[in-house]
C-alpha cells in the first residue's frame, strides 16, 4: 500500500510543502522539490540534469491528479512531472540523504566549473 498524505498544505508563501501522514509530518522546501522533480526535463531520459540556482523558487500551484499524484507548479515556470504518492513519500522520508547528495553534486559541478 502506498503512503498517501492525509493533508497537503503550502506554507511560508509557497516556500514549503507540508505533507502529513498518519504516522508523521514532513516539511519539504520548494527548492528541494524542484531539484528532484520527476519530470523528463530533470530526469533527463535516463541521464539526470542537475538543477542549479533554484534556492529562490516557490510553489505557485498544487493540483491533484486522480487519486495517485500531485502536480506542482513552480515560480520559475516549471510545471511538468507528476509527483506520485510513492515518490513524494520517498522524498519526505529520505530527505536528508537525498538533499546531501544534491548538495555534493552541486558542489562538484561548481568546483569543476572553476578549474
From TrEMBL:
InterPro entries named in the record: GBBH-like_N, GBBH-like_N_sf
Keywords: Iron, Metal-binding
GO molecular function terms noted in the UniProt entry: metal ion binding
Annotated ranges, domain Gamma-butyrobetaine hydroxylase-like N-terminal: 8-89
UniProt cross-references to Gene3D superfamilies, sorted A to Z: 3.30.2020.30
One Pfam family hit: GBBH-like_N
Keyword match Iron: yes
Domain of life (superkingdom): Bacteria
UniProt-recorded name of the protein: Gamma-butyrobetaine hydroxylase-like domain-containing protein
Originating organism: Conchiformibius kuhniae
Amino acid at each position: 500500500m502506498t503512503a498517501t498524505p492525509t493533508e497537503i498544505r503550502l506554507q511560508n508563501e509557497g516556500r514549503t510543502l507540508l505533507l502529513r501522514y498518519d504516522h508523521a509530518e514532513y516539511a519539504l522546501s520548494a527548492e528541494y522539490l524542484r531539484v528532484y522533480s520527476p519530470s523528463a526535463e530533470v530526469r533527463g531520459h535516463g541521464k539526470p540534469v542537475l538543477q542549479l540556482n533554484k534556492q529562490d523558487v516557490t510553489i505557485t500551484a498544487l493540483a491533484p491528479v486522480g487519486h495517485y499524484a500531485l502536480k506542482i507548479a513552480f515560480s520559475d515556470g516549471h510545471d511538468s512531472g507528476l509527483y506520485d504518492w510513492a515518490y513524494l513519500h520517498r522524498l519526505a522520508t529520505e530527505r536528508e540523504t537525498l538533499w546531501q547528495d544534491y548538495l555534493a553534486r552541486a558542489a562538484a559541478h561548481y568546483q569543476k566549473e572553476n578549474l
